[in-house]
Design a protein that fits this description.
204 residues, two-stranded antiparallel sheet, binds magnesium ion, 11 helices, alpha/beta, DNA polymerase, domain 1
C-alpha cells in the first residue's frame, strides 16, 4: 500500500551529530577533561532525563555546571551544546524531493529544547516539515509506545499509511509492531531505494 506520510528520525538520518566539539568547548571553560564531559552528556541518564522533558534547560545547565566547573552562562552553554550537528546532504535532498511531490513529512525525534532551538536556526530545511513529534514535549522517548501514539494523532494516519525512517533498530521495531512501514537507515542510498520501492520516489 502506498504510504500517505513519511516520518523521519532526525539524528543520524537527516543530521549527523558528534559531542566531541561540544565536550571540548565545555571542558575549555571547566575543570574536567573533554572526555569526562563527553561521558556526562553522550547518551547518558542525565541527557535522557533532559530529553524526556523531566528537567528544564536551566536545571540541565546547572547539572553540567556543577559536574564540570563550566564557568560560562546558560546562553553560552546552549550555544556550545547545540553545536554538535552536521547536515546529511543526500537525506536533506531526499526530503526536498518528497516535499516537491506534496508528500507530508514529519520529524520524530528524541531530542531537547536546546538542540531544537539551535537546529531551527542553523538548518532551514528543518522548518519545512508538516509537524514535529519531539520527546521532550511529551514526557516520553522512543521506543516508548506513548510517543508512537502521538505520531499517529499528529499525522492523522496509522498502520501502513505511515512510512518511518530511523537508524536505531529498537525504534524501527516499535513502529513495525504498529504495522507501520519501516526503513532502517544504514546509508542514504539504501533509504532512498527503500522509499522508491514503497512507491514514493521516481526512479533516478
Ligand atoms: Mg537517530
Amino acid at each position: 500500500m502506498l504510504p500517505e506520510v513519511v516520518v523521519f528520525d532526525l539524528g543520524k538520518v537527516l543530521l549527523d551529530f558528534d559531542y566531541t566539539r561540544a565536550a571540548q568547548g565545555i571542558a575549555s571553560k571547566g575543570t574536567v577533561t573533554a572526555q569526562e564531559v563527553k561521558d556526562l552528556i553522550n547518551q547518558t541518564p542525565l541527557l535522557l532525563r533532559y530529553e524526556t522533558g523531566l528537567m528544564s534547560k536551566v536545571e540541565f545547565y546547572e547539572a553540567i555546571r556543577s559536574a564540570t566547573g563550566f564557568t560560562g552562562d546558560v546562553e553560552e552553554f546552549g550555544r556550545i551544546f547545540g553545536d554538535i550537528f552536521e547536515p546529511m546532504p543526500e537525506m536533506i535532498e531526499l526530503h526536498g524531493a518528497l516535499r516537491k511531490k506534496g508528500i507530508p513529512t514529519f520529524i520524530f525525534s528524541n531530542t531537547s529544547e536546546l538542540a531544537v532551538a539551535h537546529i531551527r536556526k542553523a538548518f532551514p530545511f528543518f522548518n519545512e516539515f508538516n509537524g514535529y513529534i519531539l520527546s521532550y514535549e511529551h514526557g516520553a522517548m522512543k521506543p516508548q509506545t506513548k510517543l508512537y501514539e502521538v505520531v499517529e494523532q499528529k499525522t492523522g494516519h496509522r498502520r501502513e499509511k505511515i512510512i518511518y525512517i530511523d537508524d536505531r533498530p529498537e525504534n524501527i521495531e516499535a513502529g513495525a509492531a504498529r504495522d507501520w512501514q519501516v526503513i532502517l537507515q544504514e546509508t542514504p542510498a539504501k533509504s532512498r531505494a527503500a522509499l522508491r520501492k514503497a512507491g514514493l520516489l521516481n526512479q533516478a
